[in-house]
C-alpha cells in the first residue's frame, strides 16, 4: 500500500535538494573565480571581516525565514571553510 501524501512530500524534498545542489554549484563557480582573482592579485585567501558580515547577514535571514540561526551559521561556516580551502589551493598553485 502506498502513501500518496508521503510520496508528494518526498518528491518536493527531492526537487529542493536538486535546486540546492545546482545553487551550490553556481556559488562555487563564482567563488573559484574570486579565488583565482585573489591568487593573481596577491590577496589573502580569507577575509575574516567579510565572513563575519556574511554570517551575521545569514543569521538575520534565517530568523526571517523561521530557520534556526545556529544551523544557518554552521551551514555557511562549512561553505566558507571549503571556499577558503579552494582559495588556498589556488594561491599555492601560483
From TrEMBL:
Pfam families: CM_2. InterPro entries: Chorismate_II_sf, Chorismate_mutase-related, CM_bact, CM_dom_sf, CM_II_prokaryot. It is an enzyme of class 5 (isomerase). SUPFAM superfamilies: Chorismate mutase II. Residues 1-91 form the Chorismate mutase domain. Gene3D superfamilies: Chorismate mutase (1.20.59.10). The keyword Isomerase applies. This is chorismate mutase. The lineage of its organism: Bacteria, Pseudomonadati, Pseudomonadota, Alphaproteobacteria, Sphingomonadales.
Amino acid at each position: 500500500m502506498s502513501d500518496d501524501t508521503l510520496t508528494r512530500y518526498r518528491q518536493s524534498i527531492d526537487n529542493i535538494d536538486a535546486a540546492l545542489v545546482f545553487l551550490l554549484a553556481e556559488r562555487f563557480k563564482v567563488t573559484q573565480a574570486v579565488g583565482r582573482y585573489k591568487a593573481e592579485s596577491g590577496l589573502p585567501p580569507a577575509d575574516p571581516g567579510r565572513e563575519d558580515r556574511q554570517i551575521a547577514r545569514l543569521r538575520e535571514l534565517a530568523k526571517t525565514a523561521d530557520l534556526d540561526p545556529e544551523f544557518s551559521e554552521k551551514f555557511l561556516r562549512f561553505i566558507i571553510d571549503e571556499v577558503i580551502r579552494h582559495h588556498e589551493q589556488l594561491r599555492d598553485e601560483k
